[in-house]
């Protein structure tokens, strides 16, 4: 971190600042120029609040050199984190697919889809019980009953299950859930992130609708700083001016994230595009971009789905897509360019 001081800083204030910085176990290198003095802070600056320094009378400007995230930073943890899903590794060159309906609707629906996606090679079943909907009049999910049905499908198929939590108060219901999803709208619900940091199971963290990659990683950092290192990052499209697709899939987030963090990165092509016909191309593109996996919406009767039918694949299309996406992933990894 670099701190540029205003001209002729008051000596007492400068000494107070230096004493405080040194008390944080930082080495402070002072460069005095003719007009300005620059402080170079060396050490772990990730926990320092830049705004606190910026607000001081004697400070002109502060610049971060090191990223503000530490636990998820690849610089401190060069090896890929690998997370087990039902005994299958996700990350570290292993591409895996999570699939299932947007929402759990009935026992027959979720059990049928579970068997279908398992047969096609999915390693985990998704299905929302608590649904974050833009309108309070839209289907809100089956809630507690949805979790119960999802666990029935887990038992019937043997697949681990992934489902979204919307509030800390729901946590007791998630005891037998294998992976807890934090949706895009809750990416910066910091109290929820801290509570999930105390859990001993993987957290699938979705990127917020308008969040930068740094903000996304800082949210992962919240979970990790509270003790849970098992975070799966999911790019699910961001808000742009484009209206032809539900969101804009930021595929470049994959190589950027892979460079910055050791955590596995997956793509949700369903919410990113909003249309089933766009899901195969974006899934294959995600695999080609080096993603560690996909989370795809699949419904046994998309036309009658209570939520997101338009973007849901049929089990038949999913069964054709899954092996192709794995092949593309294997091909680019063998190629050695990524
Ligand atoms: C979902 O996965 O069902 C969902 C609501 O996704 P997102 O939070 O990405 O909108
Ligand atoms: Mn959905």
The helicity comes to: 25-40%
CATH architecture of the largest domain: Alpha-Beta Barrel
Rg over alpha carbons: 23 Å
Count of discrete structural domains: 2
The span between the termini is 31 Å
Keywords, separated by commas or semicolons:
binds phosphoenolpyruvate, alpha/beta, Alpha-Beta Plaits, eight-stranded parallel β-barrel, TIM Barrel, single chain, 18% strand
Report what the structure shows.
The model has no long low-confidence stretch (mean pLDDT 97). With 338 residues, the protein is an alpha/beta fold. Helices cover 33% and strands 18% of the residues. Helix 5 packs across helix 6 and helix 9 (279-288) packs parallel to helix 10.
């Amino acid at each position: 971190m670099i701190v540029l001081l205003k001209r002729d800083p008051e000596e007492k204030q400068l000494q107070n600042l230096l004493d405080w910085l040194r008390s944080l176990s930082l080495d402070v290198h002072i460069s005095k120029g003719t007009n300005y003095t620059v402080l170079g802070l060396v050490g772990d600056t990730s926990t320092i609040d830049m705004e606190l320094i910026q607000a001081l009378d004697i400070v002109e400007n502060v610049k971060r050199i090191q990223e503000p995230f530490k636990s998820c930073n690849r610089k401190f943890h060069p090896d890929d984190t690998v997370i087990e899903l039902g005994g299958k590794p996700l990350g570290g060159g292993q591409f895996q697919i999570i699939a299932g309906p947007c929402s759990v609707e009935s026992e027959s629906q979720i059990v049928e889809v579970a068997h279908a996606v398992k047969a096609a090679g999915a390693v985990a079943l998704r299905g929302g019980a608590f649904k974050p909907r833009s309108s309070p009049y839209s289907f809100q999910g089956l809630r507690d009953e949805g979790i119960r049905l999802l666990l029935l499908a887990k038992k019937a198929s043997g697949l681990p299950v992934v489902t979204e939590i919307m509030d800390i108060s729901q946590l007791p219901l998630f005891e037998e859930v294998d992976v807890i999803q934090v949706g895009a709208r809750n990416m910066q619900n910091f109290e929820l992130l801290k509570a999930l940091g105390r859990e001993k199971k993987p957290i699938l963290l979705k990127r917020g609708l308008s969040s930068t990659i740094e903000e996304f990683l800082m949210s992962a950092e919240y979970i990790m700083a509270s003790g849970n290192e098992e975070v799966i990052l999911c790019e699910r499209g961001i808000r742009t001016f484009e209206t032809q697709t539900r969101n804009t899939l930021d595929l470049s987030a994959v190589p950027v994230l892979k460079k910055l963090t050791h955590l596995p990165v997956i793509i949700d092509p369903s919410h990113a595009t909003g249309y089933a016909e766009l899901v195969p191309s974006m899934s294959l593109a995600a695999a080609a971009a080096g993603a560690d996996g996909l989370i795809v919406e699949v419904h046994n009767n998309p036309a009658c789905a209570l939520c997101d039918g338009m973007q849901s694949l049929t089990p038949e299309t999913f069964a054709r897509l899954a092996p192709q996406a794995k092949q593309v992933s294997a091909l680019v990894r063998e190629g050695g360019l990524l």
